[in-house]
Specification:
Elements: E1 7-11, H1 21-32, E2 36-42, E3 52-55, E4 58-63, H2 72-94, E5 101-105, H3 112-119, E6 124-129, H4 133-141, H5 147-162, E7 165-168, H6 171-179, E8 188-190, E9 215-220, H7 229-241, E10 248-253, H8 259-268, E11 275-279, H9 283-292, E12 295-298, H10 312-319, E13 324-327, H11 330-336, E14 340-343, H12 348-359, H13 362-377, H14 382-397
Parallel strand pairs: 1-2, 1-5, 2-4, 5-6, 6-7, 7-8, 9-10, 9-12, 10-11, 12-13, 13-14
Antiparallel strand pairs: 3-4
Helix pairs in contact: 4-5, 7-12, 10-13
């Protein structure tokens, strides 16, 4: 669907751009459709460090931001600083001409404050809901439905109320926007996170990446408290101790709040001779590791957030034609289908047994990989998401 081109301002707080692949794909789609695209986001630490840059026609303004440490109080400080910088830079963008659409990506559910300011100047507000923040709070902090949880719920309600259009990452999130957020189904568009399959391609397998073992296991993604890296490590310990398999090397690719704790847990479980943590790596190295991987791990445990969230790691594993072991989660099954095997929720010994089964089943691994690649190249493709994104913009400015 074509849209009347205008000026779009995209707000991001939790990742830099273009490192945030979903946001960058949205930027490129909008720019390609004729929109003048501006982005406000934090600066990265090792990449995306320039305060202002234009890349492929997309104007990016970045601000310094110290990531939260500790409990909820740290996030209040982080988000307060981010809001101040975002409003400051939004005013700068606005001085260059009227903003037609302000497109805010959560978390946090506080960017509606900046959107409200721009709406008073004639902008339409698209809320791009990457996470369900109430469920994120429950899953991350294990504090129950306390005062801060109720505050998070109130911020989500205000965001929904302020938004003209909501973008959801899957049908589960759309259902929340309609039932909990009170939005009309016609004003909620599902724009699934999907890799551009051309970016993910096989490269020659490098046996040395397996560190002398027959098999390589791979994890790719963020390492936060809710991402299940600890479940994966305990499953690997079970694979070694209970299943009796030591014919594997495992690589964990990515970073996050829990990175240091996961390295320490690996040592505590005496896995450090078989488990490697790379941190964030360039795309070229990512392709090397995933091309060599025999089985990919999606150990996100069952919790209120993970059950209804689309995991980017699953989509990227499928783009690389890799078989997956996951816990039984509603949206994991929607994404992966038969490209994954599913252990009962949070059952680490069963997760380990499924890894062992796939290591012994090369034909099944190949078939699962082909099914996954077909899903991300077909019904779950970014091409379909692009159409939904442009339809959301057309609805906002109609």
């Amino acid at each position: 669907m074509s849209v009347l081109p205008g000026k779009a301002l995209i707000l991001v707080e939790n990742l830099s751009v273009p490192f945030d692949r979903r946001v960058w794909q949205e930027c490129q789609t909008l720019s390609g459709a004729g929109w003048e695209v501006h982005v406000i986001c934090p600066q990265g630490t090792k990449r995306d460090t320039e305060a202002e840059v234009t890349i492929d026609g997309v104007h990016i303004l970045r601000y310094p931001l110290k990531a939260a440490t500790g409990g909820p109080a740290g996030y209040v400080q982080e988000y307060g600083s981010a809001l101040w910088h975002t409003l400051r830079l939004a005013r700068k963008v606005g001085r260059g001409g009227k903003i037609d659409v302000v497109h805010a990506c959560n978390p946090p559910d506080m960017l509606f404050l900046v959107a409200s300011y721009l709406k008073r100047q004639g902008a339409k507000f698209i809320f791009d809901q990457h996470d369900l923040c109430p469920e994120l709070y429950l899953s991350r902090f294990d504090r129950g439905e306390d005062f801060l949880y109720r505050a998070v719920c109130a911020l989500e309600r205000r965001t929904y109320k302020t938004a003209d259009i909501v973008i959801a990452t899957n049908e589960s999130y759309k259902d929340v926007a309609v039932k909990r957020g009170g939005k009309s189904p016609d004003d909620v568009f599902v724009v699934r996170s999907a890799p551009v399959v051309e970016r993910f391609h096989q490269v020659p397998v490098e046996p040395e990446l397996k560190k002398g073992k027959p098999h390589l296991l791979a994890y790719l993604g963020v390492m936060g408290p809710q991402d299940g890296v600890d479940y994966a490590l305990r499953a690997l310990a079970s694979l070694r101790d209970e299943v009796g398999r030591t014919d594997w090397h495992a690589v964990f690719i990515g970073a996050g709040d829990a990175f240091d704790a996961m390295v320490a847990l690996s040592k505590e479980l005496e896995l450090d001779d078989q488990v490697e943590f790379t941190g964030r790596i360039p795309d070229a190295d990512l392709l090397r590791y995933l091309s060599a991987a025999d089985v990919c791990l999606s150990p996100d445990p069952l919790n209120p957030l993970n059950d209804v969230s689309t995991m980017n790691k699953i989509m990227e594993y499928m783009a690389m034609s890799r078989p997956i072991v996951s816990f039984e989660l509603r949206e994991a099954r929607v994404s992966a289908g038969e490209a994954a095997l599913y252990a009962p929720a949070n059952d680490e010994p069963e997760f380990a047994k499924l890894i062992a089964h796939l290591l012994d089943s090369p034909e099944q691994r190949a078939g699962m990989g082909e099914l996954g690649r077909a899903r991300v190249a077909g019904p779950l493709s970014w091409e379909n998401s692009q159409k939904a994104l442009l339809a959301a913009y057309a609805a906002a400015v109609r």
